[in-house]
Amino acid sequence: MRAMSEPTPHPLRDQLPAILAQIETEAQALWGQGKVASYIPALAEVNPRQFGMAVALTDGSAHSVGHAQVPFSLQSITKLFTFVLALKALGDDLWKRVGREPSGAAFNSIVQLETENGIPRNPFINAGALVITDVLTSRYAHLDYALLGALRRLADEPNLHWNARVAKSERDTAHRNMAMAYFMKSHGNFVNPPELVLDNYCCQCATEMSCAQLAQATMFLANDGRDLRPDGQADEQFLSPDEARRVNALMLTCGAYDAAGDFAYRIGLPIKTGVGGGMVAIAPGVGTIAVWAPELDAKGNSVLGAFALERLVQLTGLSHTTF
Ligand code: GLU
Q1: Residues within a 6 A CB radius of ligand 1
Q2: What is the pLDDT of residues 203-256, one digit of tens each?
Q3: Is residue 201 included in any domain, yes or no?
Q4: Atom nearest to 108 CA in ligand 1
Q5: Which ligand 1 atom sits closest to the C-alpha of 205?
Q6: How confident is the model at residue 8 (pLDDT cuts 50, 70, 90)?
Q7: 9: Cα separation from own chain's centroid
Q8: Concatenated DSSP letters for 98-148?
Q9: Is 275 a catalytic site residue?
Q10: Could you give the CA distance from residue 144 to residue 148 in angstroms, rounded to a whole number?
């Protein structure tokens, strides 16, 4: 049963429009400092000079600036959702197949797999995400529909889809991810045929959402695992409070590839980033922040996105340590 009382307005609610406008203006100074991802050819076609930011508060209010309604390629941000689905499905047994330590290595590094017997460091690097997709491939006959179904429900958006052109572009060039899948299979840590899992993985990564939709879709992580509808009314208990806390911990320590430590220092919020230039950050108990700007730094994180999140915490005082 939904509680129908009006949520209490958050004190940030009135300040956010001016803060977001200020961040958008300041961020423009960083255009040209990064490069759009090109190792997936279709991603290189995106106009680099775009910037969108959306904040959804647990009081039901939504705030945005710039290109916040433009869908972009989620890429590794989907690893957050597939990890959550796998955690719901397997519980603690999931940790037999994947670790929960930061890798300190590039998102697509193969090196640690060699010395660590085919067990990836965490679910957010490519190797770990491939194991997670393998878990879900065993569980769902049509993983693409299962994932889209969950995302549509969480985002309250029935029209979400994955971009077939981007998926094919990644699949045609996925040699490194395929190598990792085979390597893990040789260690007994891969159940399904790597080709099938890669098909699913490339569709998953090609899912598109806008910042506004992404902020809404991750609200359950800011709200003790309980989804919040756009009006701020509580909906499904998507994860237990304990699981939500653990997902946030993993985002804080592993969500930004080998820049996770730097991001924790600069921003201090659980984050997941993707090479499409998107980032989502969770302020537990307060709300979620999604930002998108396609130009990436050398580690694959959005230059303007990182700046925007850093400015937001500076201007609002948000930090995981304050909750
Ligand atoms: N689909 C991308 C890959 O596997 C995701 C990488 C990312 O966003 O970090 O390379």
Answers
A1: 75-76, 107-108, 126, 170, 177, 205, 274-275, 300
A2: 999 999 999 999 999 999 999 999 988 777 878 899 999 999 999 999 999 999
A3: yes
A4: 10
A5: 1
A6: confident
A7: 27
A8: S--S---S-TT--HHHHHTTT--S-TTSHHHHHHHHHHHHHH-TTHHHHHH
A9: yes
A10: 6
> 257 an active-site residue?
yes
Q: What is the reported pTM?
A: 0.95
Pair 178, 19: CB distance under 8 Å: no
The DSSP H or E segment spanning 150 is helix 143-155
pLDDT in tens, 164-195: 999 999 999 999 999 999 999 999 999 999 99
- Each residue of 99-124: pLDDT tens digit? 999 988 888 888 899 899 999 999 99
Residue 101 and residue 303: Cα distance in Å, rounded? 25
Domain with 258, as residue range(s), is: 16-322
Domain count, the chain: 1
How far is the centre of ligand 1, averaged over its atoms, from the C-alpha of 201 (Å)? 9
What 3-state class would DSSP assign to 184? helix
Return the DSSP state at 296.
B
Give residue 275 CA to ligand 1 midpoint distance, Å.
Answer: 6
What's the DSSP call for residue 22? Answer: H
Does residue 8 lie within any of the structural domains?
no
Ligand 1: which residue has its CA nearest to atom 2? 75
**Pick the catalytic residue: 257, 291, 303, 313?**
257
Pocket test for ligand 1, best of 108, 169, 178, 292 (most atoms within 8 A of CB): 108
CATH code for the domain of 87: 3.40.710.10
- The catalytic position among 201, 280, 303, 313 is 201
Is there a domain that residue 10 lies in?
no
Closest to 84 in 3D by CA, of 247, 288, 202: 247
Whether 201 sits among the annotated catalytic residues: the reply is yes
Cα 41 to averaged position of ligand 1 atoms, centre (Å) = 12
Q: Is residue 148 part of a domain?
A: yes
> Could you tell me what percent of the chain has a pLDDT over 90?
86
Catalytically annotated residue among 61, 65, 73, 79: 79
